[in-house]
Amino acid sequence: MLAIRIIPCLDIKDGRTVKGVNFVGLRDAGDPVELAARYSREGADELVFLDITATNQKRKTLIELVDRIARTISIPFTVGGGIKEVDEISDLLKAGADKVSLNSSIVRDPDLISRAAARFGSQCIVAAIDARRTGDHWNVFTHAGTKDTGMDAIEWCREVERRGAGEIMLTSMDADGTKNGFDNELLSRVSSAVSIPLIASGGAGNKQHCVDAVKEGKADAVLAASIFHFREIEIQDLKTEMARHNISVRLEEAVS
To answer: What is the count of structural domains for the chain?
Structure first.
């Protein structure tokens, strides 16, 4: 069994790390370079950087900041936000990203997944999907959660896999920032529908929530933000708790 990954997420606005609830009410959470370095030292398995206003403001992801973070860390690094073209993916990979996260752009142009996977390999392409419950199903939202596409989230997960995405980062907009736990029903439905790795995002408030995302939601990785940013949970403590529940994790010692 592959080890379950613990992934801190840096949501970036105007060069600062921010965190909100249900995609609104953002508050400052610190300097992204300092946070990235801390997470790399403390044993995070990967890091995600999302420029959350890039799509809405029609500007490119902050290449310079990506470069600074990449030079600071020694763990795999995924970057997303406002990426529309294969050449932009190339620029980010050259700046130090290991993977890119694509969201609004692939809803508008699904073939971007195929073109990007063909050029860089599926292992570099993460399909980011923001989903909100609508009645008895979940709809896909884009543009930082402001636009309802009307698309069924489960079907869209199947589609991105078919087109060549190597991984899905699935955020429950209903759970995001609430600290009430992940949407394990949604995670489980998606996990059953696809065969590529699934990152659980949105709702982590304690260690048990992360355990449940793996045990009940069948997630392959757990992504969280504020619980790590504000030191409510230490990464090594979370890994120890997950191991206690017979979940395979990497327990290398943190670097001082």
So the answer is: 1
